[in-house]
Amino acid sequence: MTGLKSFLAEFLILFLLVNTLIVSFLCIDMPEVEVNAGSIVTIILKFGVLFSAPVALLLTTAHFLFAKVARSTILKILIAIIVVAALYFIYHAFFWYVGISGLIDDPLAK
Fold first, then answer.
1. What average pLDDT does this structure show over 73-92?
2. Who has greater pLDDT, 62 or 99?
3. Nearest of 70, 87, 88 to residue 79 by alpha carbon
4. In a domain, 108, yes or no
5. For residue 3, what pLDDT band results from cuts at 50, 70 and 90?
6. pTM for this structure?
7. Residue 70 in contact with residue 79, Cβ under 8 Å?
8. Within a domain: residue 110?
9. For the chain, how many structural domains are there in total?
10. Which pLDDT score, from 0 to 100, does residue 44 have?
11. Cα–Cα distance between 52 and 87 in angstroms, integer?
């Protein structure tokens, strides 16, 4: 039970951290958008939750696998390669989604 609590706590911390990074990146990247509570909530709901959950789950699972499962260096390298490849894919999916979302319907338009 302690392992599950620490897993959930680590997941929530990473989820909030990644969500904060996404919101700050999009607020800095789009200077023409007025930053207020409404635009931040829109960013969190439209982009943050969608991409924070997979990244937080991936990093939390990787940490668990490093700590509990991977005993040899080869397994640790394999886990690291898989995590980096998955983060690279999520990175491109994020920018594609932000670009398509801006082209189809500007989520932050007034």
1. 93
2. 62
3. 70
4. no
5. confident
6. 0.79
7. yes
8. no
9. 1
10. 87
11. 11
